[in-house]
Design goal:
46% helix, elongated, alpha/beta
Amino acid sequence: MMSTVTDISAAGIDGVRPKTLRGLLLARELDTNRTKRGLTTRKLADQMRMSPAMCNRVMTGRRVPTPLEIGGLCALLDIPAHRRPALYELARTASDTQWIIHRTQGTEILSAIEAEAHTITSVCPSPIPGPLRTDAYNSNQERATPGHERLADRYLLHPAALRDTAVPRHVMREQLRHLTSAPKPVRLLPNSTPLHGAFRVVQIEHFHPVVWLEHEVTTVVLERPSETSPYTRVESTLMNAALSVKETNEALLRLAANITP
């Protein structure tokens, strides 16, 4: 995963990408609406009385539009009134890289970040993550998983997640079998793997990896490379240590077979 960051810098992309995640989300929403309206960047620039180069910088997140420009863009692009305050807020805070989001307030912004993801890797110590649970297993958990959580592209699962003594044996047996048919790859970590807190690494095209941590009802999103690199290094180490998907499925089926009624 660290090679992704190196490749970005080596390719010179660092100079043309949005400077912050907020800038990216603002640009993406504006540009998506531009496309829906069937407007070229040049045509939109003409209507905004901008140079094509400046309009292109706004649509790619390299330049944050002023409040006046956002108002004009929202009018030209028919952006619904209820979405406009969010765009003004993204522009106002475009230089911020601190994200502490309460789940009852922030699921929309978290879903927007996930929508930009090229790949998501979920590192899971315990319990089994929400998108991989059976209904019976989920009903035996004290805390529901975040409602916004998108199915990750791969899961690195610690064996500790399979030792939940509070879950009835027959429920765990079916849960283990369920994991072998998960819609996305599940790879089991060796028993000797140190326990790490759960985190997700979100890879976004032309942007540094984003990491987020779930804590009770709060999500902390990290986007500065100095903050995310320790997690991407751990992710890379765990990816190398994890069993293959085939080996994982064989191990899960053995565990399931050893659970007696």
